[in-house]
Amino acid sequence: xxxxxxxxxxxxxxxxxxxxxxxxxxxxxxxxxxxxxxxxxxxxxxxxxxxxxxxxxxxxxxxxxxxxxxxxxxxxxxxxxxxxxxxxxxxxxxxxxxxxxxxxxxxxxxxxxxxxxxxxxxxxxxxxxxxxxxxxxxxxxxxxxxxxxxxxxxxxxxxxxxxxxxxxxxxxxxxxxxxxxxxxxxxxxxxxxxxxxxxxxxxxxx
Length: 206
What we know:
- Helix content is 37%, strand content 18%.
- By secondary structure, it is an alpha/beta fold.
- It has 2 domains: 157 residues, Undecaprenyl pyrophosphate synthetase (3-Layer(aba) Sandwich), CATH 3.40.1180; 35 residues, no CATH class.
- The strands form 2 sheets. It has a 5-stranded parallel β-sheet with strand order 5-2-1-6-7. Strands 3-4 form a two-stranded antiparallel sheet.
- Strand 1, helix 2 and strand 2 form a beta-alpha-beta unit.
- The longest helix has 16 residues.
- The radius of gyration is 17 Å and the shape is globular.
């Protein structure tokens, strides 16, 4: 069913951000969302909460994802790499040839500050000039999303009308869909959000 659902959509996001603004994140419910993303064919997934709980407890999240992936999908896909934004862990854990990053606020504005500092050092060392700084240069200097395209879609969960620091540089053209909560979320709610994204017309600022 998941593969058929993914193929049935007029367009499928390449990179989905899952942003939790609620105070009590659920590992089981977030794992379900990640596995559903993989199942319908989404290539890149970012998980974010503004307190950094998922990132600090990424092993617990990975265990829950692996458990649900085996229960729901079986082992019929080739394994894929799990990469953490702080680059301290990598491992072959999940499948369906998708990549996952677990992010926290330090991967947002703090990463932009670090990129600016690195660029200033390059200028000071005369390896770059100030006129070299453009969008592509800054993209290359940002470590939190290295190898990931900008998110096409952010699913924001919770009552707060903000993404609370999730990748502020990368969501200029991102479609953001708000859902009441990630707690006890159903596959139907998730797929309805994907269907909404597929039907929206993106004008790219025009």
